[in-house]
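Worked example

This section walks through a single chain of length 131. The input is the sequence exactly as stored; nothing has been trimmed or padded.
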Amino acid sequence: LMNGEKEDEACLRKYRKRCMQDMHQKLSFGPKYGSLSELQSGEQFLEVIEKERKTTTIIVHIYEDGVKGCDSLNSSLTCLAAEYCMVRFCKIKASDTGAGDRFSSDVLPTLLVYRGGELISNFLSVTEQFN
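Given that input, the structure is written out below as C-alpha cells.
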C-alpha cells in the first residue's frame, strides 16, 4: 500500500510539472517566428498588424529593389529574426504597399515598429541614421 502511494505521488509530481511547463509556455512566451517573412500586399500588411497578439512586437521593413541599404538591412533583419524569435520581422516592397508614392527612394529603407496594432516607432532612411 505504501509503495502505491509513492507511485501516486510521483505521478502527481510529474503531472504538476508538465502542467506548469505548459502554462508557462502559453503565458510567458507566446508564438515564435524566427524568420523574416515577405508580405505581398497592403492588405496582408494591415492584417498582420491588426490580427497579431497585442503583446507581440512587429518590425516591418519597407524596401525596394535597387535602393541603397535595403539588401543589407534585409540581411541584418534575417539574422535578428533568428536571434529574437519572439519578435515578428516582416518586409514588404514599397510598390506592394498600395501607398508606394509615400515611400519614395529617398525615405527607404524604412522600419516601422508596431505593438498592439499601434505604431510605436518609425525610422525613415535607416541607412542615413544608422550607417
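What to look for: The chain has four helices and five strands.
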